[in-house]
Amino acid sequence: MRIATWNVNSVKQRIPRFLPWLDERRPDVVCLQETKLSDEAFDEVLGEALAERGYAVAHHGQGQWNGVALLSRVGLDDVVNGFPDMPGYPDPGTAEARAVSAVCGGLRIYSLYVPNGREPDSDHYDYKLRWLAALAAGIADPATTMLCGDMNIAPTDADVFDPASFVGHTHVTDPERAALAAFGDLGLRDVVRDRWPDERVFSYWDYRAGMFHKDLGMRIDLILAGADITGRVAAAWVDRKARKGTKPSDHAPVVVDIDTAPDGDVGPVVPPPSNPAKRGGATVKLPHSVD
DNA sequence: ATGGCTGAGTTGCTCAGA
Q: For A144-169, b where at least 16 C-beta lie within 10 A, e where not — what string?
């Protein structure tokens, strides 16, 4: 089973990139963030194209900002918008459209767009930390849970192109990293970093100043998987190709293949094209990023 | 300390992103 997560930065603007990507990578489950559409508008612009490709859709939008979605070809059951006790912003009682989850292929999969935090002394930063704490508290069965999305936190300094320049800014502060570590306490693992412990792997590059070309990015789009899943990860990589070319999102997709067969066979996994699979039982170590 | 892109709506400007 292939699961992908992608902050598309407006799915409407990204349609010319998104549909070809979907047809090339053929993920079974897709988590989208920053769709920036209402549910009705999402259905208008993508409903037919996704139905043709066999995807069931759960979109949780709010118009011009935020918006998350789950697309699945392996079941989409018990869809939940948000999570219990999710704080709101700016009105504490009004939730933003930043989380949707469902059971797909036997796993509870979340598509998450964690609040940015803006500045460490801001109420938005406090909101970010409370949002993450409520998310962690609401996970019913960590072992079969996958948290996918734009976490807006770089787990370590290795996930930032220039750690010194980020000191005192959001995405790298200790409380944010501690909030992320709380998922680790539930047994959830960062599957891309586990697979590539020493590699330079980013998932986001600022549009400005040729940052992508210079590979000055951050790894803030994560897939955190529970204990029943981590031993079955056949591949985990960043699809850098999707960040290239015309009108890209500023984020690249993160893709994870999970072995669903009991004998260790990779099953329906389609490897990245630059890495022809060497099948025959042995796990193939696919690259961390694909250009 | 930079706001050098991009997207959205309140358009020819502001806000947000990270």
A: bbbbbbbbbbbbeeebbbeeeebeee
Residue A61 lies in a domain: yes
Q: CA A131, C1' B10: Å apart?
A: 28
3-class SS letters over A4-22: EEEECCCHHHHHHHHHHHH
Query: Closest residue by Cα to the C1' atom of nucleotide B1?
Result: A165
User: CATH number of the domain that A20 lies in?
Assistant: 3.60.10.10
For the stretch A226-240, pLDDT in tens is: 999 999 999 999 999
pLDDT for A267: 46
Domain count, chain A: 1
A276 in any annotated domain: no
- In a domain, residue A278? The reply is no
Residue A204 is encoded by which pair of tokens? 């986001």
The CA angle A97-A252-A141, to the nearest 5 degrees, is: 50
Q: What tens digit of pLDDT does each residue of A141-175 get?
A: 999 999 999 999 999 999 999 999 999 999 999 99
Distance A20 CA to B3 C1' (A): 32
> A44 lies in which domain range?
2-270
Measured CA A155 to C1' B4 distance, in angstroms = 27
Q: Report the protein residue whose CA lies nearest the C1' of nucleotide B6.
A: A207
The pLDDT of A251-271, averaged and rounded, is: 71
The CA distance from A26 to A2, in Å, is: 8
- Within a domain: residue A217? yes
Please report residues contacting nucleic strand B, using a CB cutoff of 7 A. Answer: A 7, 9-10, 12-13, 34, 36, 63-65, 115-116, 118, 124, 150, 152, 165, 170-171, 204, 206-209, 218, 220, 247, 250-251
